[in-house]
Amino acid sequence: MGPGRTYGMMSKDIGIDLGTANVSIHVKGRGVVLDEPSVVAIESDTKRVLNVGEEARRMVGRTPGNIVAIRPIRDGVIADFDITEMMLKYFINKVGGKNWFSRPRILICAPTNITSVEQKAIREAAERSGAKEVYMEAEPKAAAIGAGLDIFQPSGNMVVDVGGGTTDIAVLSMGDIVTASSIKVAGDKFDLAIMKYIKNKYKLLIGERTSEDIKITIGTVHPASPKKEMDIRGRDMVSGLPLTITINSKEIQEALWEPASAIVAAAKSVLEKTPPELSADIIDRGVFLTGGGALLHGLDQLLAEELMVPVLIADDPLHSVVKGTGIMLDNLDKVTRRK
Fold first, then answer.
1. What is the pLDDT of residues 39-72, one digit of tens each?
2. In whole angstroms, what is the distance from residue 166 CA to residue 77 CA?
3. How far, in Å, CA of 145 to CA of 151, rounded?
4. Cβ of 44: how many Cβ atoms within 10 Å?
5. In terms of Cα–Cα distance, which of 210, 169, 115 is closest to 294?
6. Where are the beta strands (DSSP E) in 119-215?
7. How far, in Å, CA of 54 to CA of 339, rounded?
8. Tens digits of residue pLDDT in 289-332
């Protein structure tokens, strides 16, 4: 067995997709071992951590005054350093626990346009969570590799990675990013747009969880989508009492028009800045859609019509980035170690 070929509990390499909505972890030799919401529930007075991940997510919008459910990563950026560190430690221990014989090497993915200060914060959080070495890589690069694209060839590949906090768009060739853009319009902004629309149109207040349910169940961004309906519950702003109403997918398409247009515009601007030879490759190969947002009904059709290139949804779009980190861990020599 060559160096770095130890598997199982001896495994020392882990890949982390540190997302705004979810944290996914890939352990070398074991695959994706964790995928949980990036939420931490703490007691506000004592700062004691009560729950992390799925258990904490269930508490969002449902806690008594002294318990707060915090999402420490907002718009792809660490908003609360201490809580991010606690969350990372918790997840790393959960997948390795007492079985890490030595400190693991960690590869973390972050949006393309984070500042060096933000990059340092992520690196420090990982180091303090017990990493021996920390490598950082751009999210769309990992997403492209995880979607099965061979980005190390001299030909153009384009990926649109719609996550929870950011949409990262990149054209890759020869193993690196040629043109890229990252915008803070993604899953969370879709949820907010739905909440705002329902508040304005029906004077009904709904929470983040309900809004996300609407997006998943009847959400669409394409006018030709079949019309679906759904009953939703919330608080009537006029009477202050609970109320149930029926909404349909046409309304949600209207609600999501603005954030969807922002993603289309960002993808167009990346294509416009791409060298013509690579643009020609993209017309042949198409654009790959990854991230949770790839599951939003009609987004692939909308992008295909607006960009005039084929758009393909990656096989397991939610895990493209973390799968990519797993493949990169096997090729750490090709990963640039960014200080």
1. 999 988 888 889 999 999 888 777 787 888 889 9
2. 9
3. 7
4. 12
5. 169
6. 133-138, 157-162, 167-173, 176-183, 204-205
7. 32
8. 999 999 999 999 999 999 999 999 999 999 999 999 999 988 87
